[in-house]
Specification:
By secondary structure, the chain is α/β, with parallel strands linked by helices. The chain contains six helices and eight strands; from the N terminus they run βαβαββββαβαβαα.
Amino acid sequence: MRVLLPDGVNAASDPILEILKKYRTIAVVGLSSNPARASYEVTQYMQRAEYKTVPVNPNETEVLGEKSYARLEDVPEKIEIVNVFRRSEDVPPVVEGAIKIGARVLWMQLGIENAAAAERARAAGLIVVEDACVLVEHRRRAKQLG
């Protein structure tokens, strides 16, 4: 796992805990309606933990009871965290969308890393998490999160 902070942001002792406390609306890019997929399991967990989730997948109309959107730019509500379930090479356009919508955090799931895209997001003011599962990180901090 790697966490990148934008210039001028002071590092908290646990930046992941701060993200999970402060931001509650998550766009899930690449969310599948297939319950066997990691994106489905992780998003279902985050819903149960009382986070608002918004599916972003042009191949879906609805996932886990939420309307799906083709692109981040199509989501009508404010998105704080963009959680990415796409291949590493597919991250750059997601970063551009996250910047356009004013997201605060770009979170690339386990196994997803793209140094150039991460630096682009960080330089644009987003907190970036690479190669980490939001479900795992939330469970690790469950006591602190209440």
